[in-house]
Amino acid sequence: MRRGIAALAMAVCAWSPVSAQTTLDFGQGQPVQVAPSAVLVIDFERAFRESLFGQRAAAEIEKTRQQIAAENNKFTEELDAEEAELTQLRDTIPLDQFRARADAFDEKVQTIRREQDTKARNFARLTETANARFLELARPILTEILVRHDATLLDDRRNYFIVLDQADVTDEAIAEINARIGTGETAETGQQ
User: Fold this and answer.
1) From 18's CA, which of 125, 150, 170, 190 has a CA 20 to 30 Å away?
2) Mutual orientation of helices 170-180 and 95-148 as an angle, nearest 10°?
């Protein structure tokens, strides 16, 4: 019970607007120093999605998805035509020639499948990579927002059931990230 009260008291002090350290004594003869802190939240998914960087990344990812889909459709059409041709040749050429062609066709199918599977795996990592790069570039900006609000923690809004609007800095973060990073193309090329 005492631990519960201590935790509650520390949580209340954490939201206290006082900027100096507070000493709490829970009747056990051991005062506890509690530094006030504030928790800010951000909707990281929305910040990424609505930022210029995120919009550029999403457009590039969609373009890559469409290219892979177009390649898959092209390969499917070509392989279907080649398979139909092989089927027609089955009864018109010697068996050893047919087997050689069928084996070559199977090898071609397996090679294409491996290449397209590799592209699909790489594609699946594109969003993860873009998010990681976004956070890397945004980290100094988010740190400045923390300092400006005299806060010590920035967390994802989705981790909390109830959040006061004044604790959410998503709009502020998007505006600053857009102003300082933009689409991120300059950062990606290493230019200033």
Assistant:
1) 170
2) 110
Question: Encoding tokens for residue 188?
Answer: 């990606």
Instruction: Write down the pLDDT at residue 190.
Output: 52
CA dihedral 139, 190, 126, 56 (to 10 degrees): 80
Give the start-to-end residue ranges of the domains of the chain.
Answer: 2-37, 42-189
Contacts of 37 (CB under 8 A, 6+ apart): 14, 151, 152, 153
Which pLDDT does position 171 carry in this prediction? 95
d(CA 96, CA 94): 6
- CB environment 3-25: b (16+ within 10 A), e (fewer): eeeeeeeeeebeeeeeeeeeeee
Tens digit of pLDDT for each residue in 79-103? 999 999 999 888 888 989 999 999 9
pTM: 0.67
Q: How far apart, in whole angstroms, are the C-alpha atoms of residue 50 and residue 13?
A: 34
CB 170 within 8 A of CB 157: yes
- Which residues, including other chains, have CB under 8 Å from residue 42's CB and lie 6 or more apart? 142, 154, 155, 156, 157, 168, 169, 170, 173
CB 134 within 8 A of CB 51: yes
